[in-house]
Amino acid sequence: MVRIKHSFSGWRRLMAEPDHIFLKPLPNFAYGDYPVAFPFFYMKPAEHEDIIRKFVPKQNGPITNVDLIGNSPVIIKKVYFYYHFWFIIQNLLEEVATTWMNISLRMKHDEETDRTFGWILEM
Counting beta carbons within 10 angstroms of the beta carbon of residue 102, is it exposed (0 to 12), middle (13 to 18) or buried (19 or more)? Predict the structure, then answer.
């Protein structure tokens, strides 16, 4: 992970894979506390809604709410705040990491999902 400091936006983390090559500076499209990720248009959850619904229940909204993103590249903010005189670092990545890991493992261990998505699950 690389730390990026922009005076207009605070500290952010860039998560990228070692085979990513950036020929120009990566624009920081993250806004406020909202991270940004690169869309992968070959990921089409609507084409496999029956499989995706095993992991994203209907109460989470329409299948179009599933973002077409991988784990990289992502720019995510590192939030600092004070709580009862203690300096606390809240990393937004830490907030989603456990859920992301658990769903990823469940999808990989599900034979139908692994067969259907193959290498895309690695994304």
Answer: exposed
The domain segmentation of the chain, as residue ranges, is 2-122
Token pair listed for 52? 């995706």
Q: Is the dihedral of CA 32, 79, 56, 106 positive or negative?
A: positive
Would you write out the chain's pLDDT as a tens digit for each of its 123 residues? 445 444 434 577 788 888 888 888 878 888 777 888 888 888 888 999 999 999 999 999 999 998 888 778 888 876 655 555 554 555 677 777 888 889 999 999 999 999 999 888 876
Q: Return d(Cα 28, Cα 33) in angstroms, integer.
A: 13
- The string of DSSP codes covering 37-50 is EEE-TT--GGGGHH
Q: What is the pTM of this model?
A: 0.69
Q: How many CB atoms are closer than 10 A to CB 12?
A: 20
Residue type, 120: I
Asked whether the beta carbons of 11 and 77 are under 8 A apart, the reply is yes
